[in-house]
Amino acid sequence: MSTKIELPSSIVIRDLAQKIEKSPIDLIKKLMTNGVMATINQSVDFDTAAIVVGEYGFEAVAEVIEEEVKKETGEVPLWRQMIAGEDGTQLKLRPPVVTILGHVDHGKTSLLDAIRSTEVAAGEAGGITQHIGAYQVEKKGRLITFLDTPGHAAFTQMRARGAQGADIVVLVVAADDGVMPQTREAIAHAKAARVPMMVALNKIDKANANPDRVKQQLAELELVPDDWGGSTMVVPVSAKQKMGIDDLLEGILLVADSTEIKANPAGKVIGTVIEAELDKSKGVLATLLVQNGTLESGDIVVAGTAYGKLRAISDFKGKPIKKAGPSTPVAVMGLSDVPSAGDIFEVVQSEKEARAIVSERAQTAKTLSQTKKKVSLEDLFANVQAGEAKELNLIVKADVQGSLEPIVTELNKLGEGEIGLHILHAETGNIGNNDVMLASASKAIIVGFNVQADVDARRMAEKEGVDLRLYEIIYRMTEDIEKALKGMLEPEIVEKVLGKATVLKVFEASKFGRVAGCKVTEGELRRGAKVRLYRGTDIVYEGDLSSLRHEKEDAKEIRTGFECGVGFKSFNDIQPGDQLVCYLIEKGA
Ligand code: GDP
To answer: Helix, strand or coil for residue 557?
Structure first.
C-alpha cells in the first residue's frame, strides 16, 4: 500500500524533495522524464507533484488549505454579517460587486473604462458622462456592479471603517511587467479581507507580453492559475484594444456563482457609502451602495454621523429612480452632512430616531478616540481569552529576501498551536504607510527585521494604534511572538514620571558625597525611585535616588514647591541649573 502524503495546490521543488526525503536533483530528473522542466526554486502544481511522488510510491492527497480552515472557523466576509439577521428563506442572489486592484500603470483605470464603454455605452446615446464612483454592466442577462475607484487605498479605507464594498477582487497584472510590489500588496489586502480574487492579465497585446512568466509568479504567491490546475481564474485581456472583456465578465459571474452572494430585497435596508461630497448648489451628494433591502426615495437614512430624508435618488447614469435593490449603486441628495467613504448607512423609521443614533455615535467616537484600542502583542493573549481574537495577524518586513524567507518559515511554525498565526504580507523594504494601513484595517501587528519605519508610517501607526516592532536578531522576534502566542509575554515596561525638580545649589556632605539642593517644580520626588539628571538636553546621570532630605531630616517624599537635598548613588558631578526627573518603572497595562 502506498503512503499518503498531503500536498498543497502548489509546491516548490526543494520543499517537495524534503517532504518525501529524496534529493531535489533526483526529483528534477523525474520531472524531466515527465516532460516538465523545473529548477529547484520553482514550484509545480498539485497534479504534477502527485504524479512525481507517485513514482516514489506515495499517494498524494490535497492539503486542507488555510482559507478553507478559516471559513470553518467562522471568519466571514463583512457583508454576510450585514445580513446575518435576515430570514434565510428570503435571501436571493444579488449582483456581485467588483473592485479592481493592482500595481500602478498596470491598467486598472483603462480596464474600468474599457468595461464601461464596451458594455454600458452600447445603446446609450453619448455614453455615460457622470461618474458616481460605481457603475453596472449587464452580461448574459445578469448585472455586475463595478466600484470605480481603483486601488487598495480606497479598498482598505472601507475595511478600516468596518465596511466591505466589494465581493470580488479583480487583480490586474500587466503581462509585460509581471507581479510588482503593489500587486503583492493588493493580494495581501484581498486575502486579509477574505474576498475571492481573480486575475485580469492585461496588456496582452504588447509584443513583450509574457503570460507564462506572470502565471509562474502568481503560482508562487499561492494563486495557481486554473489552467495549471489551480483555483485562480486568470483571464488574458487588453484594456487598450478592448479584448477579452467578455471573458473577464463571464469569469466574474463564475466566481460569483461559487460564492453565493445573497441579500434579502425586502429586508432591512443597509449598505455602504462609496463616496460623498458637498456641492455648492445641491448640498450633500453621496453615492450609496445598497447591500440589503430596497432603498426608496423619501427614506430616512443614517450614514456614519450624517442623516437625512432622501430627496432624490438617481442611478449611475443620472436617471432618477424611485427604488434601488441590493448591489445597486445610487446617487442621493438630502443628507445633513458629508459622510465618509466606507461608512455604513441604514434606513430608520423617523428623523428623531436618526438624530438619536447620530448623537450616540458622535459620543462613542469621542470616547473611542480617547481610549484608542490598540492591537498590541502584549494584549494578544488577553484578547484571545476575552474571545476578541482567534489569531495573530502579522505583517513582516525584512531587509533582504534571504532573511525574509527563514523568518516566514519560523513564524509559520509558531502558528501551529492554539492561537493561529496569519501572515498577511511579507516583503522586503522599510515599513511604509501602506503597511500601517493594511495593519490597521486588518488588526495586524507589524514586525520588522533590520528595517526602519518611515517617519510618516510611525506617525500613522501612533494615530491608528498599530503595534510596530523592530528587531535586529531573528530569534528575538520569533521568541517574542512565541511568548505572546502562549500568553507569556511580559507586559511592556513603561516609565511613570513622579515629578520634576531644579537643582539650585550643590553642597558637600561628607556622609553622602555631594548633595543637590533642589526645588520640586512638579509632582513629587520619592526616595528609592529612579532619577534622571538633565543638563540642557543632555542626560548626565540616570540611576537611583539614594538619599532625600528635608531640612536635615530624612524624607520619603517631597512635594511641589518644597526644597530638599538629593543624593545620587555614586554620582557627584552635579551643577546648579540641572533638571531632575523622578520616575518609576512599571509594567504596562
Ligand atoms: P492604472 O495606474 O493601473 O490605472 O493604469 P492605467 O489604466 O492608467 O494605464 C497605464 C498605462 O498603460 C496607460 O498609458 C494605458 O494606456 C496603458 N495600458 C493600459 N492597458 C493597456 C493594454 O491593454 N495594452 C497596452 N498596450 N497598454 C495599456
So the answer is: strand
Going by their DSSP bridges, the two strands 538-550 and 553-554 should be labelled as antiparallel
Residue type, 300: I
Question: What is the CATH class of 494-587?
Answer: mainly beta
CA-proximal residue: ligand 1, atom 24 (nearest): 203
Q: What is the DSSP string of 409-466?
A: HHHHHHTTSSSEEEEEEEEES-B-HHHHHHHHHHTEEEEEES--B-HHHHHHHHHHTB
**Which CATH superfamily groups domain 270-371?**
Translation factors (2.40.30.10)
Q: What is the CATH number of domain 95-260?
A: 3.40.50.300
Rounded to whole angstroms, the Cα distance separating 443 from 76 reads 15
**Cα 536 to middle of ligand 1, angstroms:** 57
CATH class as words, domain 3-64: mainly alpha
Which is the closest atom of ligand 1 to the Cα of 239? 23
CATH number listed for the domain at residues 377-490:
3.40.50.10050
192 close to 184: Cβ distance less than 8 angstroms: no
Domain boundaries, the chain: 3-64, 95-260, 270-371, 377-490, 494-587
**pLDDT tens string for the chain (589 positions)?**
577 888 877 788 888 888 888 888 888 888 888 777 777 777 788 888 888 888 888 888 776 544 443 333 334 556 666 777 788 788 899 999 999 998 889 999 999 999 988 765 444 444 555 678 899 999 999 999 999 876 666 777 777 666 677 899 999 999 999 999 889 888 888 887 788 999 999 999 999 999 999 999 999 998 999 999 889 999 999 999 999 999 999 999 999 998 888 899 999 999 999 989 988 888 899 999 999 999 999 999 999 889 999 988 999 988 999 999 999 999 999 999 999 888 889 999 999 999 988 888 877 766 655 544 556 777 777 777 766 667 888 999 998 888 888 899 889 888 777 778 888 888 889 999 888 888 888 888 999 999 988 888 888 888 888 888 998 888 889 888 888 887 766 656 677 888 999 999 998 876 667 889 999 998 899 988 888 899 987 888 888 887 888 888 888 889 988 999 988 877 888 899 999 999 887 765 4
Mapped onto helix, strand or coil, the DSSP state of residue 152 is helix
- 3-64 against 494-587: fold identical: no
Q: How far is the CA of 376 from the centre of ligand 1 (A)?
A: 40
Cell of 185: 500588496
What's the gap in Å between 202 CA and the centre of ligand 1?
8
Decide: 182 in ligand 1 pocket, CB within 6 A: no
Q: Does the C-beta of 109 come closer than 6 Å to ligand 1?
A: yes
Q: Check if 113 has its Cβ closer than 6 Å to any atom of ligand 1.
A: no
